[in-house]
Amino acid sequence: RFVVAEELLAAGAPIGAHFVADRQTAPALLHFGTEEQRQRFLPGIAAGELYFSLGMSEPDSGSDLASVRTRATRGEGGWTVTGTKVWTSEAHNNHFFAVLCRTSPMEEGRKHAGLSQLVVDLHAPGVTVSPIPYLDGSHHFNEVALEDVFVPDDMVLGELGSGWQQVTSELAYERSGPDRWLSTFPVLREWLRERGAGVSDADAVVLGRLAARFRAIRHLSLSVARALDDGDAPVIEAALVKEVGTRFEQDLVEALRDAAETELDQGSGSLFPALLAEAVLTSPSYTLRGGTTEVLRSVAAKGLAA
């Protein structure tokens, strides 16, 4: 999967809808799901036909994820879910999302307890998906409101009350892959293509510095993929990949913006200026989604200190 993801990202392929499903929902189902859930969802995910979003962050629960207030109340044959999720990528296109919610009251001093994951149909009655557009007007993020949404018992993912442990185990998949350092690669490729044989010494310096960082981050990312393949949970290492990778993506955009010495124009007939303009507008999100830089540094610092 690592190699396939690299090739898709490098080519600028439209992978947004199915990416979360094969990146982390499928591993979560393999680790925590029932055999019925695996049979229902995994073939469609593997075929690229069944799409999942993440139901983690809330308007007042981002970095402090354990403070989520979406609540699931036990009823006959299932659960009634009410709450709001935000930054829900591709929810307007996807079929389901795994919702982190509170299935028992919060205990004093134990906010991580009583959380569970439920698989919610994004087209179920009571689900409202509202777009959160990027600065350039494109649509990727959403706010998802859940109003008395019924979720049957067989859509509980894993053990009740183990939602926090399950979600944190997913973070190694979410933070460590090629999508955290390759999403701006098409901009670099088009810059070189337009330069052609006219690459200057200054351009070569820019390229050399970027290529060296690319290679180092790839090795770190690949080492996490190998650890995951061995059954480990390298959460600290994954946090480091995401921190250095997304900062690198932003640095790449700024380096090419300086080297190009051109005005930003999304409507340009040339591909490089159009991609660069788009990257400038979207790059601020790189160090926010999947965990802010500050949070990731805290995770790494605490883990290394331990």
Largest sheet, described in full?
4 strands, mixed
SS element count, helices: 9
The rough form would be described as: globular
Instruction: Assign a percent range to the helix content.
Output: 40-55%
Quantity of strands, as a count: 8
Structural class: alpha+beta
Strand order of the largest sheet: 1-4-5-8
What does this structure look like?
The chain has 306 residues and is of the alpha+beta class. The chain has a four-stranded mixed sheet with strand order 1-4-5-8, with helices on one face. A four-stranded antiparallel sheet has the order 2-3-7-6, with no helix packed on it. The protein has helices spanning 2-10, 16-32, 35-46, 163-176, 185-195, 201-229, 235-260, 271-282, 293-305; strands at 52-55, 71-75, 78-86, 96-102, 115-121, 127-133, 139-152, 156-157. The model has no long low-confidence stretch (mean pLDDT 91). Helices cover 47% and strands 18% of the residues. The two termini are 32 Å apart. The longest helix has 29 residues, at 201-229. β2 (71-75) and β3 form a beta hairpin. The chain is globular, with a radius of gyration of 20 Å.
Essential attributes:
306 residues, alpha+beta, four-stranded mixed β-sheet, four-stranded antiparallel β-sheet, 8 strands, globular
List the helices and strands and how they pair.
Elements: H1 2-10, H2 16-32, H3 35-46, E1 52-55, E2 71-75, E3 78-86, E4 96-102, E5 115-121, E6 127-133, E7 139-152, E8 156-157, H4 163-176, H5 185-195, H6 201-229, H7 235-260, H8 271-282, H9 293-305
Parallel strand pairs: 1-4
Antiparallel strand pairs: 2-3, 3-7, 4-5, 5-8, 6-7
